[in-house]
Structure formats: structure tokens, C-alpha cells
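Support request from a user on the community tier.

User writes: "When I paste my C-alpha cells into the form, the page sometimes reloads and wipes my input. The last time it worked, I copied everything first. Here is what I submitted, just in case something in the input itself triggers the reload:"
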């Protein structure tokens, strides 16, 4: 009998303490989590609970002070050097003097891809995020939602297996956010990426995820991990279903319990 596949991301007893002028601040405490290939995992919790810090640890942008963390069986630093992930930030972060296509090619240029390969990859990812024909536009010519889709395209351009997303739709209005949530689920289904997604929205976390990680206030701990029973094919109106509402209640209860444990 074949052994089960190793998790793509594995954290065990993970701690992170920042040294500040006012003394040490513990951002993460005893975090244990496994994320499998193809999972869509949302991290939800109050501001300052360590959601983004944990994402940055996965990316090798912060160094844990205790415990272990592996990404694709490597240290986060090794995974970063191996280009194992794409990162989508809260703001699109597009250079205004470069066209959308040129923004997407920037990491490809740094990595030394040929011009022909760059062009092919740009065309493919623009189609994936439904921005075909907009490569020659500048960021200021696109709406906020379109700019975030271009940012996602840039993160997908070098075909990393893992997509790290730090509250990418938080600044957008609800109508645009709903549309991008639908598009992101369709993109995930087509690409089969492993996605780690930070959000403050309970409905967004429940709608998008195969697994919801509920975090407590600082020091950031995991108060609940919810495996979603919802089907992968999720129309927006699934949010009116009893099953969806039950999961949302469990997330809310986990957030309240986490606050109750705060000391």
C-alpha cells in the first residue's frame, strides 16, 4: 500500500517572537498545521493575530524563533530560492510606468526567461485571469479589481505550485469582491494550485476554502481547523444554504473562543 503523500506545507510547534524597543512581542505560539497539495486554505482571525506573519514565514520572509516549518519538503528559504510559490499582496503593487504585460514579465525577466517564453507565459496567465487584450494597458487604465487580477497573473507567471495571497480583495467593494471570489475559485479549479489565503471576511473564507484555519488574538494560535464539506463547484448562492451557514457559525464561534482565551 502506497504511503500517503507528504504535506506541501507543514508547521509544528511554530513560534515567532519579535524583539522591539518595548520588549519582546510574541506573534505566533505553538502553531501546528499541515496543508496538502491542492488545498485552498483560508486564515481568518482578528487584526494582529499573526495571519500575515504566518504567511510570511511560509514565504521565508520572516524567520520563526521556535519549532519547524517545511515547504515542499524544504526549509522556507530553500523553497523561496526554488521559486516554489507566488505571492499576492494586499495592494496590487503594479509599477505605473510599465504596461500590464511588462509588470507580469518582471519576475520572468529577473529569472532569465527568454523573450519568447515571457510572451507565451504572459498570454497564458492573462487568459487565466480573464484579462486577455489588456496587456498593453497601464495600471491606471484598469479598475481596482482588474489590477488585482493582473497581480495574480504576475504571481502565476512562473508556474509555482503554491499561491500565497494576503487579503488581496480586502479593499474592494462587495460586488467586485464577489466576482473575484468566483473567478479565483475557477482559477484554482483549472490550475490545481495549493492556495493559502488571508482574509477578515467569514463569508469569503467559507465560500473559498477546503480548509479554514481560525486564529486567536496575539500571540497567534490556531483555535480551530475546519474541513469544509462544501462541493468544489460553488455558485455564489451556496452562501444561502444551511450547510454554508453552519460552517460560518462554527468560524464565528471559533473567533469568539479565541478572544475568550486571550490573556
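"...and here is what came back when it finally went through:"
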Amino acid at each position: 500500500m502506497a504511503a500517503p503523500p507528504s504535506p506541501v506545507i507543514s508547521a509544528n510547534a511554530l513560534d515567532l517572537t519579535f524583539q522591539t524597543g518595548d520588549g519582546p512581542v510574541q506573534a505566533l505560539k505553538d502553531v501546528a498545521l499541515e496543508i496538502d497539495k491542492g488545498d485552498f486554505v483560508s486564515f481568518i482571525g482578528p487584526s494582529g493575530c499573526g495571519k500575515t506573519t504566518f504567511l510570511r514565514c511560509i514565504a521565508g520572509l520572516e524567520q520563526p524563533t521556535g519549532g519547524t516549518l517545511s515547504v515542499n519538503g524544504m526549509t522556507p528559504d530553500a523553497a523561496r530560492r526554488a521559486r516554489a510559490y507566488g505571492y499576492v499582496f494586499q495592494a496590487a503593487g503594479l509599477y505605473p510606468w510599465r504596461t500590464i504585460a511588462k509588470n507580469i514579465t518582471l519576475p520572468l525577466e529577473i529569472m532569465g526567461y527568454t523573450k519568447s517564453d515571457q510572451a507565451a507565459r504572459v498570454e497564458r496567465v492573462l487568459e487565466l485571469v480573464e484579462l486577455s487584450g489588456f496587456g498593453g494597458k497601464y495600471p491606471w487604465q484598469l479598475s481596482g479589481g482588474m489590477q488585482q487580477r493582473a497581480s495574480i497573473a504576475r504571481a502565476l507567471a512562473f508556474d509555482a505550485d503554491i499561491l500565497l495571497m494576503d487579503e488581496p480583495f480586502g479593499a474592494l467593494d462587495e460586488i467586485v469582491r464577489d466576482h473575484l471570489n468566483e473567478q479565483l475559485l475557477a482559477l484554482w479549479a483549472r490550475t490545481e494550485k495549493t492556495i493559502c489565503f488571508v482574509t477578515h471576511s467569514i463569508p469569503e473564507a467559507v465560500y473559498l476554502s477546503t480548509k479554514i484555519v481560525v486564529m486567536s488574538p496575539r500571540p497567534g494560535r490556531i483555535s480551530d481547523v475546519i474541513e469544509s464539506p462544501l462541493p468544489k463547484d460553488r455558485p455564489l448562492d451556496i452562501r444561502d444554504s444551511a450547510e454554508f451557514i453552519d460552517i460560518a457559525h462554527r468560524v464565528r464561534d471559533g473567533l469568539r473562543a479565541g478572544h475568550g482565551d486571550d490573556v
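Agent notes: The reload is a front-end session timeout and is unrelated to the input. Residues 86-159 form one domain. The first strand starts at residue 9 and ends at 20. Escalated to web team.
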